[in-house]
Design brief:
The structure is a single chain. This protein is of the alpha+beta class. The protein is built from three helices and three strands; from the N terminus they run H-E-H-E-E-H. The chain has helices at about 1-10, 30-45, 100-105, and strands spanning about 15-20, 55-60, 65-75. It is globular and about 40 Å long.
Length: about 110
């Protein structure tokens, strides 16, 4: 698997970034999930094209709610340089940089 190989071969101390998007709903339409994951990746990795990073998404509903887990190896694929997904500083707290009212409305989440 590409993600595992990238993480295992990384020379960096923090080899990957991972997290979860958790929703109140038990499920969402596939199209909505795809839009959410794409939007999240674009917000987390601004300015990067899809061929510059790898991201694995895993979906499950073991708590009667939808959860979308992600793992991103901290390496930029074209250059091999360190990749640090996401903003830093106050904007990084609890993903507030991504939780917008428009997405909250679309997914019926409470911001």
């Amino acid at each position: 698997d590409q993600i595992k190989a990238l993480i295992d071969s990384s020379k960096y101390a923090q080899k990957y970034t991972s997290g979860v998007l958790s929703f109140q709903e038990a499920d969402l339409p596939r199209e909505d999930k795809d839009k959410l994951m794409d939007s999240f990746e674009r917000a987390l990795l601004p300015g990067l094209d899809r061929d510059q990073y790898a991201c694995l998404w895993v979906e499950h509903r073991d708590k009667e709610r939808l959860e979308l887990h992600f793992v991103i190896p901290n390496i930029e694929l074209l250059s091999g340089k360190r990749l640090q997904p996401g903003p830093t500083g106050p904007a990084s707290m609890r993903g507030r940089w991504w939780s917008t009212p428009s997405w909250a409305c679309m997914t019926r989440m409470i911001p």
